[in-house]
Amino acid sequence: MNTQHEMQARRRKRLRYQIRKKGGGRPRLSVFRSSKNIYAQVIDDVAGRTLVAASSLDKSLAEILKTGADIEAARAVGKLVAERAKSAGLSQVVFDRGSYLYHGRVKALAEAAREGGLSF
Fold it and tell me: Running DSSP on this structure, what letter comes out for residue 3?
């Protein structure tokens, strides 16, 4: 039986392959969630640099959020990263959920980013 870490690595590898295959050169919206915070960044893989980033640790969000580890925090981060991406001239991205299931905080961040104007 595979360990949890091995299964996460397999999911991450499978997802990255699909993103490269179907992404069409679009930047990817990558999500990282820890037990206390959630982070999102838009990455240009061709240039190898981060274009836009947002997290529940940003000063504007940390003041209004009760905790960085709930669905409300994920929605706020999704809206913020979409707002920053729109101001940087980005409207189309590829969603990279990493090894996380599309559920809970990851899903809330994605839906908020879509409401904010990003399309994926």
Answer: -
Hey, what domains does the chain have and what are their CATH numbers? 4-115 (3.30.420.100)
For the CA atoms of 8, 12, 13, 18, the dihedral, rounded to the nearest 10 degrees, stands at 140
State the DSSP H helix or E strand holding residue 40, giving kind and residue range, or none if neither: strand 38-44
Predicted structure pTM score: 0.88
Partners of 42 in the β-ladder: 29, 52
Rg (CA), the chain: 14
How far is residue 59 from each of residues 17, 33, 54, measured CA to CA in Å?
Answer: 35, 18, 10
The rounded distance, in Å, linking the Cα atoms of 64 and 58 is 10
27-48: pLDDT as tens digits: 999 999 999 999 999 999 889 9
pLDDT in tens, 51-86: 999 999 999 999 999 999 999 999 999 999 999 999
Question: What's the CA angle centered on 58, arms 114 and 106, to 5 degrees?
Answer: 40
